[in-house]
Description:
Elements: E1 2-9, H1 14-23, E2 28-32, H2 38-43, H3 45-63, H4 78-89, H5 91-100, E3 105-116, E4 119-124, E5 133-140, E6 144-146, H6 162-165, E7 177-181, H7 185-196, E8 200-205, H8 216-228, E9 232-235, E10 237-245, E11 248-255, E12 261-266, E13 268-271, E14 275-277, E15 310-312, H9 323-338, E16 352-355, E17 360-365, H10 368-373, E18 379-384, H11 389-393, E19 405-410, E20 416-423, H12 426-429, H13 431-439, E21 443-446, E22 449-452, H14 458-462, H15 471-475
Parallel strand pairs: 1-2, 1-5, 2-3, 5-15, 7-8, 7-13, 8-9
Antiparallel strand pairs: 3-4, 4-5, 6-14, 10-11, 11-12, 16-17, 17-20, 18-19, 19-20, 21-22
Amino acid sequence: MKKYDLVVVGSGAGFIVLDAALDRGLKCALIEKDQFGGTCLNRGCIPSKMLVYPADLIREAERALKLGVTLGKPKVDWQLLGERMFEKIGANKEIRQAYMNTPNLDVYEGTASFVDAHTMHVTLKDGTVTEPFTAERFLLAGGARSGHPDVEGLDAIDPLTYEQFFGARFPKKPWKSLTIIGGGIIATEFAHIFAAMGTKVTIVGRAPQLLRGEEPEVSAFLADQYRAFGIRLLLGHTAIKASRVGGKKRVTARCVETGKLTGVDSEEVLVASGVVPNSDLMRVDLAGVTTDANGWINTNEYLETNQPHIFALGDINGRYAFRHKANHEAEVLAHNLYAQAERRHVDYRKVPWAVFSFPQLARVGMTEQEAVEDGHKVFVGRNYYSQVASGYAMGYQEGDLDDGFVKIIVDEHGTLLGVHIIGFQAAALVQPYVYLMNAASMPRKHGDHTHVDIGTYEPLARSMVIHPALSELTAWAFDNIDWLNPVELP
């Protein structure tokens, strides 16, 4: 039976830990059931933003009239957008080839499954099953997949998932009409993309609030903007039935409060009502790995499961489904396993994220309600785009529907508890707050005294940076410092 030092399931953020092991000459295995590069590269944040940005340009062109600039009606070359997107996704082939030729690494293309706590095999893409193998450590970074809501007749109308959209079912042109089941991040971003392209979009969301869990006033602001763009919001509605009517796909939704039924007919239906973990495919139960009631793998702040030799990170542990969070977890785990230095942990209280809607939404930390429920004495500050010169120059005026804002939540000591921004480039604007919140928690012991990293770039290096956002441009510059060649004057 083959024995490895490390087996990594999933070729997304798990690469960071895998590379650290390979750099130390360890014998490793990598298992990937889909395309190399993970969700982010192939069917998530990167290809979606290649459609979001053109949609942003369309909305900005519409806003230009407010500033006295007439740009004319934008024309969209959908084929070119698709070609650029799939060219970027095509990088998975280069990643695959690189790892296929890596010494000390066996690559298995198929679905990993535990046999017991120390043994695994792989069902390859051709259906054959490998011989079992064992490992000193396993890292489960196999992600999640689209969930399937319990809607009568849904399979019969052959709805779309985001995985299919970024693959064989990418449309030849924007649909004339689109119904989205779900009111979360995926639903919100797809609604922005297609509404800007001229599609008549309807969102059917079970929660009474768009983007459930966000600061209510931020979500309400975005909902008002979407309605102004002509996006129909059926919030507080549950999709209960799907059928084909007159060449279109109909979704029937029931109002949670009144019970009233509403039918929505559209050319296509996108299911974006949540994701489920791939832990069931891996048969983690046979390894004795514990999960919560929904199948998300239980991990602590060190990415450890209840089995000391099995670790999990990324979407599969159910703790914030963002690539930058997964990358951060992977960096922490690689450090703890291989750096032979003081152990680090992941601080999940300071995970930043953004929704690339229009306008953008970004946050880090708690909502106002969460802060109060956590026992803090809470104080709130707000500032609107219209209240600063640059915002006014961009056409934002007090009382306007699109006058975005920042909301800051602090305690009586001025400690940052949460920051919420909705408006132009929110994803980049929130990042300095992420650094501030992390800087306060990074004291390091040096001999008999404690050093706080004030004035160094260490807080930036230890902070998560929202992906993909322009703030990565400045944050990652520190990774490129040439420590081997100090500057000398001629």
